[in-house]
Every structure is written in C-alpha cells, then in structure tokens.
Amino acid sequence: MREIERQFPRYSAVAIVLHWLIAVLIFANLWLGGTMVGQHGLAKFNNFQLHKSVGITILLLSLARLAWRAAKPPPPGARGMAEWERRLSSAVHAAFYVLMIGMPLTGWLSVSASPTGIPTLLYRLGGFPGIPWPHLPIAPDLPFDQKQALEAAANTVHRLASYCAYALIGLHVAGALKHQLFDADPVLPRMAPCLRRRAVQS
Fold first, then answer.
1. CA atoms of 197 and 188, how far apart (whole Å)
2. 114: phi then psi, degrees, rounded to nearest 5
3. CA torsion, points 126, 129, 131, 135, in degrees to nearest 10?
4. Is residue 129 part of a domain?
C-alpha cells in the first residue's frame, strides 16, 4: 500500500473537498439555469436569486482553490501519459479554472449592468431575507443604452460558457475513466474521497 501511495500520491484533503463541493455546485447551477427558462414572477425571482447565490459561492470557492493550488501544487499526473494527453489534460484543467471564475463574473456583470437594477440577495430562502451582494462598480452608472449592450454581451458569454462547461465535464470524466479502466492508472482514488486504493500491476 505504501508503494502504491508513492506511485500514485493522493490530492490533499482541502483540494478534494474543494473539488467535489465546486463540482456539485456547478451541476446544481447548470440545472437551476435551465429551470428558469419559461418561468415568471416570484418563482423565477427566487430561483434567480438562488442561481446568483450559488454562482457567487462557486466564484469564492474557485478563488480559494486556485490559491490552494498555488500554495500546494497537485501531485504528478498519471504515469505513462502521452505528450498529447498531458497537453490536453493541462488545457482542460486551465479551461475549468477560466470557467469556474469567468462564468460567475459574467453573470455578476450581467446583473450589475441590467437596467432593471434588481439587487442580489444571497441565499434568500424561506424567511431568511438574504445577504446583500453589491453590483460591480461602474456598470450601474453607465448610460441606459450602454448598460443594455453590456448586459446582452455578458449574457451571451455566460450562456456560451455553460455549453463549454458541459463539454469540459465530458472530457474530464472520459479522461479519468480511460486512465482508471484501460490504462491501469488508479487516478480516481487520488481525488475520490470514498474509494480505497487498489494495488496495480507495474
């Protein structure tokens, strides 16, 4: 077991918790974004506030994860990876960070530039009034037509980023399963909190 640990070092507990927490929140927010299509009135307002709340949470956790990664670099990648696999893996991970930070920022920018000026109340659930979250500076003070244009552009980027998120998730999962099932590289236990390591043949 110790030899396996040396060959396939595990991610730190902090990295594992942040990874899975952010993953669950991303899936939840993609689902929430889809449910708001066609909604109106109070139901849409409440879901929109929750969608914004989860998005801001993802932004803060992603910044924390990026800082942790800089302070404690991740363990080496799977053995025997071809150069193109290493490049693709690095590109996918970099794109994930861009999305995890960029998607909430574009959503925040869209809300900040909206001519309607709807406030953001984090986790306004039940009787809880929510935690006020400020708009981004400058955007609310722009002329009406500029705010409309900025809101539309931010919405477009936000929507396109959600499509990219599905593609990246597919690539990430496919890559992990390939190494686990076909390459005999036990990569899943390195990040999965509940899987025990299995000895692999050299």
1. 9
2. -60, 130
3. 110
4. yes
Q: Is 202 within the bounds of a domain?
A: no
Report the number of distinct structural domains present in the chain: 1
179 part of a folded domain? yes
What predicted TM-score, i.e. pTM, was given to this entire model?
0.85
What domain range is 100 assigned to? 2-191
H helices of the chain, in order, are 2-7, 13-35, 41-71, 83-113, 144-177, 188-191
Size of the chain, expressed as the number of residues it contains? 202
Q: Residue 26 corresponds to which tokens in the numbers above? A: 């991303």
Residue by residue, pLDDT tens for the chain (202 residues) are 444 445 557 788 899 999 999 999 999 999 998 888 777 888 888 889 999 999 999 999 999 999 999 998 887 766 666 788 778 878 888 999 999 999 999 999 999 999 998 899 999 887 888 899 999 999 989 999 999 999 999 999 999 999 999 999 988 888 777 766 666 666 666 777 765 544 333 3
Pull the structure tokens for residue 109: 């920018």
Provide the token pair at 156.
């477009």
Integer Cα distance of 96 and 62 in angstroms: 10
Packing angle, helices 41-71 and 83-113, rounded to 10: 140
Is residue 74, in this structure, part of any structural domain at all? yes
- The CATH number that applies at residue 61 is 1.20.950.20
